[in-house]
Each structure stands twice: as structure tokens, then as C-alpha cells.
Amino acid sequence: MSDTRLAVAKTYKLFVGGAFPRSESGRSYPVTDRKGRFLANAAQASRKDVREAVAAARKAFAPWSGATAHNRGQVLYRVAEMLEARREEFVAEVTAAEGIPAKRAQVAVDAAIDRWVWYAGWTDKVATVLGAANPVSGPYFCFSVPEPTGVVGVLAPQSSALLGLVSVVAPVIATGNTCVVLASEERPLPAITLAEVLATSDVPGGVVNVLTGRTAELAPWLASHSDVNALDLAGAPGELRADLERSAADTVKRVLRAPVTEPDWARQPDISRLRAFLETKTVWHPTGI
Amino acid sequence: MGVPSTTVSTVADGAGPALPASLADTIRDDAALRRFLHGLPGVDQVGLEQRVAGLATRSIKKAAKLWAIDTAIRMVDLTTLEGADTPGKVRSLCAKARRPDPERPEVPQVAAVCVYPDLVEVAVAELAGTNIGIASVATAFPSGRASRGVKLADTRYAVAAGATEVDMVIDRGAFLSGRYGEVFDEIVAVRQACGEAHLKVILETGELATYDNVRRASWLALLAGADFIKTSTGKVSPAATLPVTHLMLQAVRDWREQTGQVRGVKPAGGIRTTKDAIRYLVAVHEVAGPAWLHPDRFRFGASSLLNDLLMQRRTQLEGHYSGPDYVTVD
Amino acid sequence: MTDNVWEYAPAPESREIANLKPNYRMFVGGEFVDGTGEPLKSVNPATEEVLAEVATAAPSDVDRAVAAARKAYDELWGRMPGAERAKYLFRIARLIQERSRELAVLESLDNGKPIKESRDVDIPTAAAHFFHHAGWADKLAYAGYGPEPRPVGVAGQVIPWNFPLLMAAWKIAPALACGNTLVLKPAETTPLTALVLAEILQQAELPPGVVNILPGAGDVGAQLVQHSGIDKVAFTGSTEVGKEIQRSLAGTGKRLTLELGGKAANVVFDDAPLDQAVEGIVNGIFFNQGHVCCAGSRLLVQESVADELLEKLRYRVSTLRLGDPLDKNTDVGAINSKAQLEKIRELTASGDAEGAERWTSPCPVPEKGFFFAPTVFSNVHQAMRIAREEIFGPVLSVLTFRTPTEAVTKANNTPYGLSAGVWTEKGSRIFWLAERMRAGVVWANTFNRFDPSAPFGGYQESGFGREGGRAGLEAYLDV
């Protein structure tokens, strides 16, 4: 008889509209570590879960994009705080998910925390940097401001389960977009744990929705959904990309393409991911008495 | 006399023309008048000036130009309003009014001559037997800074001397300080003093500062019974401008829509060339409508304009440019 | 106005000024060359007469043009210092100004738009676009895309017929400023001013191959955007074709910007400066015969002023002068093509059938040529085709609203999102509304204003990417 107690295993569910439902389909799939050892069952989302998630993201868009940039910055910074508090847990999960040494996982988790901080600081600077007072030739005051494009479908990176995920989600929501994220198919567990962090970090329900499941099954529904405004192909399998882009064209979605091989997410980002999901709105008004 | 009134005259006083029920309430008291004037749609300066600039690109050629020149001549209030005016100056002006181009008797007569009150009797004598109107400025023109009694006496004097049209100035000071009732009262009183004479109310738009004020002053004058609303005395710069005239044309157009009554517009000051005059006529045509292309409804307060119209008329007919020595300088 | 006492005599601009030639050729590698495609005939839509025969491109010509652009990019333009590129663009701007009268008359002949618009808007704005972007060429490091942003490469650009020269300028100027070379396809019905622009490029001594111009129909455009030798596609035109292009580029890695259709709402509140609102509405929908992707084709007016506004609007519309585009007094010119006229007729017939109330300006309509009298539909509801589909003609649909929130909901209730208008005296309401409009351009107390320094482009199905200003450079930089 051993003196170790049996651990209580976590049930990994979806994250939709701020809640953690099971897939409406009732399906799940086993997730293993890089050596094939069973880690947990993940919910296997269906197209109806995609539909629910998009609806939740759309509902959250007006209040989130209407929140002050300062407020969004506070929320994103809060995510970093919460993540920091659960650092060891994430290190363990990333180690298991990615099959990398704990030391490297620690670096990745730290980088993920710092990334939230970096993007938290951007929320109230984007408009200054990307907006403009346009010197038009006429008696008008004319300015341009960046605005979030809407609901973004994010195909999270397949390899980098946490840092990659944070690197694509944070810039999307920093500017006021909401998103539906398809987590890495084989390494989905850190994504759901991150969802737990988001749920306890003042991120309003629906701003980030996380689905786990088969990318090839779900991605086409996301790409073809008329109420999705943009698509981030970061983790799209190569063979799917052209089809997804074609589907996206049906409603003229903005598509952020991805390099064939996953980039090194540890590299310091620039603002291109912020820019990718922003519209520019130009407003004119006469100046007169 | 001279004490600002706190209530405005009303239709019941029989002072102004009958107003339809929708407008009668607006002159019930000071507050109602203010509410009405401040409730008028605002004017966007840029939009207005753009529209005016667009209309100014109309290209009027050939027969249309000749028609415009003759129409403009018929609309001229040939004016002299100088401290140095004399009976002799007025007599030669009247001669010009009767026969603008001595070599071309078919040239129409102008609408009126416009002089100071003390010279009205000279004009009356000179223009007897013609249809040319005799307009007199009054009410302590051009500043209007005199007591109500003096203004009314000035008016009565001009009318007694034979003026058929009176060009009064509004009290801009009262208007700008928001004492609309006072301005209204004064117009009503002057109108009564006019008797049969037509009343043109000079807003002196150059002192009103904003287009919103021009619109309010236009409606104020129309409510008080102005037969014409006139832009300027000619003594303040800017005098008449196209945008201001445009607004006033909109006011008389809207006035007719609401009341069925026809009122006129008179830009005055600074209109010197045929090109200018045609731009005004295009505005009349396209803003108020073709029905306003008539001296009963539109006048030019001008002096040198007439000679330019005459030169351009010759150019049109003779096919070459004319010169200032070929028209009379009076 | 039928009871007119003062008929303006015709004041036509002389068509001689256009220097119209019987034949126009393609511009490839710095030279005018014959095309191997079937020549097209460009028609004056105001008279239905053929203006000129224009060479068109076959696939082999597209190959040649793309190869010329590639060579120019690799060997010269892509490496040229920005300051040198700038001087070419300044030269082009000046030459357009110098030949502006010729270009204006030619544009009105070929397109059907009133001379006052080609003269006062299209051509000066095209020159201004080159002038603005010229200055960017050596200042890209300050544009916010990193210290040394690189060009994309060879661009394939397809433009529409509504502002032929202006759209060419919108495409060519930023592409060249950023160091790209390009192949441009003007619209089938309006190729002439782009080919005169090619002459200007020669006069400016722009190196051969930097700009290539291939007239032709949609098939040439399709060949161009799908050509493996180009790196970037820029398209302005219908949403339908835009989607096809986006589909066809899927998986190719080619960069894409789209400026597509619209169904803009022009929202008038009861406190608006009504007379200027009327002007703005007229300018919003009758400017360029309504052939404007950002046209204010849906008038949303607050119920309390709807009747008054409609009355003023009808009066004002009835003063619009329809007719000869070359007449300086013409306000509304010819519909660009028979096909477009038929589309307008079909859609307006649907308005009748769906129960909207049609009012047509009593202006006389010329017997020859493609003309459509200014038309206002009232009693329009969101469900009607004339409220949802882009008509691209002088047809206004009038809807009403009661509250600001309802106005926003109705305005945004469309897959498009190019532009919007708002008319109110209340400043805070302007910003409230501007914030909520899902549209790339919001005109408040004005409409249809354009400037090279002001980014222009759509939300949603009105496309992506911006043209103009700092934001517009992104489309032509590898960032």
C-alpha cells in the first residue's frame, strides 16, 4: 500500500461565452503527451459549438470594443497577473504538452506572461501610433482611427501550446476584437487552462472562446461563418489553407496567412498582428462658424 | 419712445401682414420669437459656401446671357448714398435711370433710384411719369444708431417727400445682444410709418458675423412684414456676398412655402460686374426659383454695375469688346 | 424645371481639346504596342458613337507586361533610392496638371461624367494623389512600418470605370512610391485616359516597364491577377468580382487589397442643417451619376423631418441639369454603359414591384445616349432590393428612423461597410454615431470628400486595405 493519494484529475471542457460547457455533441478525444501517455480527455467540439462560440463572440464584441482602451489594458494585465500566479501549473502542462524540458517550458511560460504585459500596454497606444489627423486640402477636420474588425477566428499554433496561443490571442483582443480560438489539436490542454485564467481575470465572457477538437473538422465552419470577420491561419494545417482562404472569400474576410513552418514565438513581436485585425475609419467634418 | 419694449407687436395689432396660424404664435412674445429664431435649422458654412461655389461655375452664354443682362438692368436700384450727394448728382443719376444707354433706346429702365431722404424730392421731380421707383434709405442709415422717434421721423419724411420704397436698417446692436423683440417692434413701427411705400429691411449682414444670424435676421424681418430683405448698406465690408444672398433666397422661398406670401431679396454693395450679377441671377433661378427672376422680387443695390452691364450688352450684340468711354459716366 | 423663363444656352467644352485619336495601343515596357487580343471599341455613352478603337491584351501580352514589370523591378525601380522615385512622381503630378483640360474632356467623352466633375474633381485629385505620394517615396522609414520597409514586388492592378484616371492614380502612385512596379488594367468601357497617362509617363521619362497598361475586359483582369509573376493584387470594383479574385488567390501567398461595393447610409437627424443636408444628399447620390462605390444610396431620415426634407430634396433634385457631359452646366451626365443602364432599370423596376414610391425628376432626358433621370424612392423598407443591393446609379432610397439607436441598427444592417453620412448640429451625437458606424469613411455634415492624405476603404464586404495616407502605404510594402 502506497502512501500517495490518488490525484483528482481535471476535466477539460470548452470555453464559450465565459462558461465551460462540454461539447454539445458529447464527444471527447484522448490527449497524450509526446510519448503517447494519456494526459486527459479533451472535449471534441462540433460545428454547433463553433456556431455557439461565434454567437458568444459577436455578443461580446460591442461591449469589449466599446470599453476604454485603458480598461482593456487593465484586463490584459490582469491576465498576466493571474498567469504568473499559476506559473508552476502551466510549466507542468507545457512540459507535458510539448514534451520539452521543464526549463524550456519555464522560459515559454514566462515569455507568455510577458507577452500579455506587452500587449496590455499597447491597448491605449495603438490609436496614437496608427491613427492620424489627415491634413486634407479643404475646410475639414479629418481624422483616421484604427478600429477592431470584429469577430476573429483564430487557428492557434499547433506546436507552441501556450506561448504560441498567447501570441496570437492577445493582439486580437487587445484592440477590441473578440475571438473564437481553435486550440492546438494535439496539445489543447494549456489552452483550456489558459481559459480558466481568462475566466478569472475580468475578461468579459465571450471575448475569448476556446474550442478543442479536430482542426480539419472545425476550421472550415469557422472560415465559412458569415458572422466571422477575420481569420488567423497561424495553426492551419498546410493542406487546409487554400480551402480556408477560399471559404473566407465568400464574405470577404480578412485573412492573416501563416508561414509554412511555425515561427519562433519567443521572438519579440512587432505590431503587425495588432494591425492585421484593425480597420481604419476616416471621419470628416467641416470646420466653419 | 426710445424705451426698449419687452413685448413684441402681434398680428392683432394689425401692424404686420396676416400670418398663418403656424407662424402667428412665434410673435406672441419675446420668448416665443427667440424660441422660433433659435429653432431654425442651422447653416453649415462649408456646405453653403461649397454649394455657392458650385453654382458660380454655371456658364451663361449667348441668348441666355443677353436675357440675363437685360433682366439685371431691370433689377438695378441705381444708388447714390454719399455725404457729397447733391441735387445735381441725383438728377444725372435719374437721367441714367431713365435711359441707361442713350444710343440704345431699347435698353430697359432700371427698377428704382436709391437716395438719401433729403434728396427724394429731387428724384421725384426727375422721374415723374416713369415707372421707376424712388427708394429712400431711412432710419438713421447706415448705422441705425438713433432713437426710435428719429428713425420714424426719418421714414415719414422720406415717404412724405414721395419715396415709394423705403430701405431701413435694423438695429444690429439689439439683434446681436439678443433683443429680437425690439428689432421686430422697430420694423413693425417703420412699416406702419411707410404707409403705402414698400419696405426693404437691411440686415447689414457684414455685421451679423454668422450665417445662422443671417438666417435668423431674415426670418425676423419677414415676420415683421418686410417686403424685401436686403443684405447691406454698402458702408460695411463685406457687403453683399453670394452665400448670404443664397441664404436669404432660401428664406423667401421657405416663407412662400409656409405662408403663400411673396417677398423679395436685394443684395447691395460690391456687385460691380456683369459676371457677378449673372452669378446672383443663377442663384435666384436655382435657389428661389424662376418666379423670382423679376424686379418685383429681386433687386441689385448698385451704382457702377449698370455701366458694366451696358458694356457687356454691347459686346454681346456687336461681337467685340466695348470700353468705358462708350457708356455714360454719371 | 419646365416653366423656365431662363434657358441656359448650351455651353459645351470643345471635344477637340481631348485630342482624340482613332486608335489607342497598349503600353508595355515603356512603349505603345499592338495587343494580340480582339480590339475593343470605346463608346461615348452620351451619344452611343464609337470614340476610338483600343488594342486589348491576350494572355501572351499579360506575360510580356508582367515580365517587363519584373525586369524593371529587379534591375532598376526596386533598388532606386526613394528620393529619385519621388522626383518621377512629382514630374507625373505636374504633367497631369499641365494636361488637365485635355484629360478632363477625354474623361467626360469616354465615361459620360459631367465636365465640371472631371475638370474640378477627377483630374485635380488624380494629380494631387501623385503629388502626395511622391513625397512618401523617400520617407517610408517614417511611415511606421519599420526602419527600412521593402516593396512587395510586381503589382497587378484592376480598376473600374467610374473614375478611370483617378482610380489609376490611386493605384499607381502608392505602388510606385513604395518601390513596386506594376501592370494596370483599366476598365473595358473607359480605357482612354489611362493610355494618355501612359503618354505622360513617357514624357516624365519613367523607366520602361515600371508601369504597364493593358486594356481589356474581365478575362484580361483575371489572367493578370492569377499570373504567377505578380506578387500583389489590388482591385477596385464589384464585391462579386472581388470575392472571385480573393478565391482565386487562395493559397498563392499573393498579397491582396480590395475596394468593393457599398450601400452607404446617409443619416439625417431632425436638428440637421437641412439645406446643407439636402446638398449633401444630392452630392452623395447624384455625384458622378451615382456611379460611386461610397454613394449615399440609402437616405435614413428621422421621421419628424422626413416630409419637409423630402420636399426640399425633390425641389433641389428637379433643378439638376441632365444632359451632354461636355456642357459646363450639366450636373448629371450619362450612364457609363448600356449594361449599367439596364441594371439600373431592372433594380428600379424591382422597387416599383416591391411597393416603394418612385419619384423621377421632371428634367428632360436626351433621346440618344444612356441616360437615367435622377430618381428618389420613398417608403422604402430594409427588406427591399433597392435598400440592400448596390444600384450604382442616380437612384436614392429613402427610409426613416425614430431614434438614434434605430438609425445605427439600420445603417449597419448590410454586409457592406464602405461609407456613411451623418447630419446633425449636435457634436456629441456626431461622434457617438461615427463610432458606431461600421464603415471605413464617415462623413459628418458633408459627403463624398476625398483627399490623398485621407485613408479610404471598407469594412466587411466592402473590401480590405486602405488607399491614401500613411495607412494606404501598407498595401504596397512587404510588412
From TrEMBL, chain A:
<protein>
    <submittedName>
        <fullName>Aldehyde dehydrogenase</fullName>
    </submittedName>
</protein>
<dbReference type="InterPro" id="IPR016161">
    <property type="entry name" value="Ald_DH/histidinol_DH"/>
</dbReference>
<keyword id="KW-0560">Oxidoreductase</keyword>
<dbReference type="Pfam" id="PF00171">
    <property type="entry name" value="Aldedh"/>
</dbReference>
<dbReference type="InterPro" id="IPR016162">
    <property type="entry name" value="Ald_DH_N"/>
</dbReference>
<feature type="domain" description="Aldehyde dehydrogenase">
    <location>
        <begin position="29"/>
        <end position="255"/>
    </location>
</feature>
<dbReference type="GO" id="GO:0016491">
    <property type="term" value="F:oxidoreductase activity"/>
</dbReference>
<dbReference type="InterPro" id="IPR015590">
    <property type="entry name" value="Aldehyde_DH_dom"/>
</dbReference>
